[in-house]
Every structure is written in C-alpha cells, then in structure tokens.
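Let us practice reading a record.
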Amino acid sequence: MLAEQIQADLTTAMKARDQLEVSVLRMALAGIKEARVSGTDARELTDDDVLAVLAREAKRREEAAAAFAEGGRAESAAKELAERDVLARYLPAPLSDDELAALVHEALAEGGFDSPGQMGLAMKAAVAKVAGRADGKAVSALVKAALAGG
C-alpha cells in the first residue's frame, strides 16, 4: 500500500539524512494517520484515500508558495515548492489540457448532461472521472462551458 511505501521511504530518507524529505514524509504520515482516525470510528485507508491526503497537502504547499512569492519571500516560496515536489512523486501525473477536456466530455456524454441546471450532477461525474489528476477549478470551467454550449 502507498502508506507503507511512504513509511519505507521515510526510513531511507532518515538513513540518508535528507532533512527536507524526512520532514515532508513525516508530515504526510501524520496527515494519513489523522485521516485514518477522523470520524466516529478508526478505519483503514485505501490508496485513493492516501492520494487524496497527499494531493491536499501538495495543494497547500502550492498555495503557501504563491503567498510567499507575492509577499517577496522567495526563499520560503522555494522551500514550499520543494516540499510539494517531494509529495508529487507519490501523486499520479496531472492531466494535460487535452486529456482533461476529453475526460470531461466523456463524463458529460455518459451521464447525458446537457443543460446548466445539471451543473452539480455533471461536476460530480466529471470529478469522479478525473480522479484528482486536475484542479477542480479547471474541471468546473470546462463543465460550465460545455453545459452552456449544449
């Protein structure tokens, strides 16, 4: 499982004395543990659940890097991006614009969505099809444009 791979990589990073990787992987494992025990009952996470945690953490790093860059703190922004890059090794490759458009079109066709009133259902289908490999804002924009044109 992915969580076990991250734990093994943490051990390797500790032996190599890679401080950046150690801190990022520890943070990732803490997030995974938190997700595991959140809610009323502790549960075992699937790889998809772990990927969702990692994607959320990677997105936080990107947002923090953007804020640091905007505030003129380039060194802090670079550190956040380096942390995001460590997390990105565990995430599936992001979709290209063409691949994303094709998947959104496919999801809309499969669900028979063709009017702006079906935006919520269409988004749910499109997000499931994309499976975390693209930004939600990009998916939303494509769904909205396709439904408005249809």
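A brief commentary: The CA atoms of residues 123 and 140 lie 7 Å apart.
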